[in-house]
Specification:
Elements (H helix, E strand, L loop, with lengths): L8 H20 L11 E6 L18 H7 L3 E7 L5 H10 L3 H4 L6 E2 L2 E2 L12 H7 L3 E6 L6 H5 L5 E4 L5 H8 L3 H5 L5 E7 L12 H5 L5 H8 L4 H11 L2 H27 L7 E6 L4 E2 L5 E2 L6 H4 L3 E4 L7 E8 L3 H8 L28 E5 L7 E5 L3 E6 L5 E5 L15 H17 L17 H6 L5
Parallel strand pairs: 1-7, 1-8, 2-12, 5-6, 5-7
Antiparallel strand pairs: 2-11, 3-4, 8-11, 9-10, 13-14, 14-15, 15-16
Helix pairs in contact: 10-12
Length: about 450
């Protein structure tokens, strides 16, 4: 006969009670595992035109590495800057509000007088401060004298360096000094790198320039690279013909290639960046006579305010394109939301994706672009998925464009579509009036004398 071992019922009851006690103790008194939020890499490229990037349909392979990153991310096809030049745009990027609500719109020299650039208002919460409050270590290297620590762009960063108007290689070199420190961090990290390369002067970068313009002479190459201001290039085009414009575009494209290669090298030197949530964008674009001008900071056409934007999350394996209208003011709430934080009430943007990387279709949305730099006419632009209205605040003249049928903004429909103009104008005025005014910052800081010539050479000075 088979013998079976049995356990008394009382013993079974006591064993169950004991296990339950241990389980309760471990849940209440044991160490809790808190999920560490992801690290972030924000890359911005100064003066980078969305129209000259292959992952937005451009014929030249100007950014192969960035294209590969975009293949594993969410690409926003309708993303816009808040202005057409660096200062107001980047201030919006870090504070999450439109230019009229942060007030930092100027910073140039005209007729020998320095126009003062005010520091970013301390009353406005910014992205690095919000991330620091969540336990992030924060690092930034910027290549633009408009973005110095003294002007408020270093607020909230543990380490911040403005290396001036310089090449991407120097940005990388300076940043990599912090590599060991960053890799030793146990908590999450936020990194912001701002590159400058596509900005005028357009240096001919090899071997790409040879691929794009194999008939360019050494003399021509040197001449185009030496044109320091848009007005100089315009005069040279007038004197020597449209070939100079063609060469300038090829130089510009080669600059994008150079910057792309340097970003590729950064990832090779710092492979753990692959595991960061990455946002890539630009402060504004660049015009090559599409509307009669060169450069930027003179109008609000899409050549200068439509920007590249993609978000790459580790684990996403296929490209996703979003037609949602996006703005630079959305970057801060998007990153803060992924980190598990709550956006300050002052922020005017919205999170573009949720913590799982999903884009939720929203109702029709309009965003603003604003320009009031004291050089160009004061402008406000209302931009939606189909329509765009631009108003000159001084003369009240209007331009209305159907972006679906006329993406190049060639046909002003104000006269032909008075009802649509009135409708869009009402939306624009309501949106502008809903924005709180900029906080008072007190005495403005003058631009440093040693930067005056630099700013003049780069086209910000008349």
């Amino acid at each position: 006969m088979e013998y079976k071992k049995t356990i008394p019922k009382v013993a079974v009851f006591l064993l169950v009670c004991l296990l339950a006690t241990f389980s309760y103790a471990s849940e209440t008194n044991g160490p809790t595992t808190k999920k560490i939020p992801p690290s972030f890499l924000l890359i911005t490229v100064d003066t980078l035109s969305v129209y000259r990037l292959p992952f937005y349909g451009y014929k030249r392979s100007t950014a192969p590495f960035l294209g590969k990153l975009a293949e594993h991310g969410i690409v926003f096809n309708n993303a816009y800057s808040t202005s057409s030049w660096t200062v107001p745009a980047v201030t919006s990027l870090v504070t999450g509000v439109y230019p009229s609500s942060h007030g930092i719109m100027r910073g140039s020299v005209k007729n020998g007088h320095i126009y003062k650039q005010a520091p970013v208002p301390k009353k406005l919460p910014n992205l690095p401060e919000q991330l620091k409050a969540l336990g992030y270590r924060t690092y930034a290297v910027t290549a633009n004298y408009h973005l110095t620590k003294e002007l408020g762009f270093g607020r909230g960063f543990d380490r911040y360096a403005c290396v001036g108007f310089c090449a991407a290689e120097k940005v990388n070199s300076f940043f990599l000094k912090w590599k060991r420190e960053i890799e030793s961090q146990k908590g999450p990290v936020f990194i912001w790198l701002h590159y400058f390369d596509p900005h005028i002067p357009y240096i001919g970068r090899q071997p790409w320039l040879k691929q794009y313009q194999n008939d360019e002479t050494e003399e021509e190459s040197g001449m185009v690279s030496s044109l320091l201001r848009p007005v100089q290039m315009r005069q040279t085009i007038k004197n020597k013909g449209q070939r100079i414009l063609t060469l300038a575009k090829s130089h510009y494209d080669s600059e994008i290639n150079y910057c792309d290669e340097q970003i590729n090298k950064l990832f090779q030197e710092f492979p753990s960046l692959e595991q960061y949530v990455m946002v890539f964008t630009a402060d504004h674009g660049e015009e090559f006579m599409e509307h009669g001008r060169l450069g930027h900071a003179r109008n609000l056409y899409n050549n200068t305010v439509r920007i590249p934007l993609f978000i790459r999350l580790p684990g996403i394996t296929s490209i996703a394109n979003s037609k949602e209208v996006a703005s630079l003011i959305d970057v801060a709430p998007t990153l803060l939301g992924i980190a598990g934080g709550k956006a300050p009430l002052s922020w005017q943007g919205r999170a573009l994706i949720d913590q799982k990387g999903q884009v939720s279709p929203r109702e029709e949305r309009y965003v603003l672009a604003q320009l009031n730099n004291g050089i160009a006419p004061p402008l406000n632009a209302l931009i939606g998925s189909n329509w765009k209205l631009v108003i000159n605040d001084k003369t009240q003249s209007k331009e209305l464009y159907n972006l679906t049928n006329d993406p190049a903004e060639r046909n002003n429909l104000v006269t032909l579509q008075p009802e649509k103009t009135q409708q869009q104008n009402e939306i624009l005025q309501k949106l502008v009036l809903s924005l709180p005014p900029a906080p008072k910052t007190g005495e403005k800081k003058p631009l440093q004398k040693d930067k005056e010539e630099m700013l003049r050479s780069l086209g910000y000075i008349q």
